[in-house]
Design a protein that fits this description.
With 494 residues, this protein is of the alpha/beta class. 42% of the residues lie in helices and 14% in strands.
Length: 494
Amino acid sequence: MKEIKTLGELKKSKYTSRSVKDELRANLIVKLRSGEKVFPGVLGYDTTVIPSIQNAILAKHNISLLGLRGQAKTSIARAMTGLLDEYIPVVSGAELNDDPLNPISKYAKDLIVEMGDKTPIEWMHRDDRYTEKLATPDVTVADLIGDLDPIKAANLKLNYSDERAIHFGLVPKAHRGLFVINELPDLQARIQVALFNILQEGDIQIRGFKLRLPLDIQFVFTANPEDYTNRGSIITPLKDRIQSQILTHYPKSLEIAREITEQEAKLSDDQRAHVEVAHFLKDLVEEIAFVARDSEYIDQKSGVSARLSITAYENLVSTAERRAIVNGESKTQARVGDIYAVVPAITGKVELVYEGEQEGPDRVANRLLGAAIRKQFPQYFPDPEMIKRRKETNPYQEIINWFGSHELDLMNGDDEETFRLKLDRVQGLDGLVAKYFPRATDEQRYLLKEFALHGLAEYSMLGKNQLEEGLGFSDILGEIFSSGDDDYDESPKY
């Protein structure tokens, strides 16, 4: 179709115009019938959010996506462009992307009257039909709808009521496309009112002048359900004009969360080639976010974004990479101790219930790390709590006994050989790992040894102290009597 350059040729081709909502509906039906994935890259919503969005598209509704931060609301909106026709014809030079067969602007109408079938047309790609606006308190009616241009009116000797004297805003320019407003509650109430007529009647009002413009737009709005910034709310009449309100949510399983993180993490080819991350470490990173969403220290109204896991994973990999570079190693694997390097990725992504002193966020982040280790540990080794309750033989006793007269410092910068030699010193670790993971590779064995020490520390069977450049493990009684730091007091509060 792209070879068609004039209105006459378009008519001869028997091209049929259809609205944006009809496009979305028809193309969705095709994808559903073929079994093709409708929103590729949007994970964890296959049985919840996506069916609701598909229902809304089939019903030709404007959509509001309601959910906490980091729940892929904007990603979903952007993915909807994949349901538009790849190319559509527009009148050349038309500011409002006029349909040659159904123009709405004075410019396009006059041009067609003047040139008839010789009216030039262009083909617009679906990617150019997406408009996004972040709602902020300083957004004006002029930004969204438009304003009178007195200079234009004077130069062209036009009356202010003439359409040609108007400088159109983002919404009219999104004609025949998708228009997304992110964080709708941030939009002032009077600006939200300006959207009423567009959504319902298809006309706009600028400075008292009413202009009939039957705009063809698929609106998508995003918003947070909680007013945690005291910024405002969606006014009721506007809610009434948005036909479908769809609730989003965080990943419901570690598997889905891990898949999202691996998809979204911005890792270089070098990092992917030279840094290995064990499966249980990936789970541990995801567990941090899950623990945070249940933590009494975190303001749950603001949510815990999926970006926390993504940036934490990136930090984990970069920490291992840095150590390998410094030690001159070509390949390395992330260690359990590297997880404490992700604290900067956590502190900026959680809102505390009580901010407290300056180091408050760091302390909470360390508590979350400890709680995540504690939660993951029983999936790999016997649950220390169950051993105590059932009064069973303690499989960790030899390890605990060794720490009665020894200490172990695992430093962040230890090369692989030093790291392994230190772990080999601890009596009982080899036997523990061999018993529960008889088929583990050499690399896996040492990671599991380290993980065992961290887990026992979180269950108060060993002491753990944060050193300037690493972690120290010791007898739990020795730690109690030697340290007053409560950073690792992990009573179950999550």
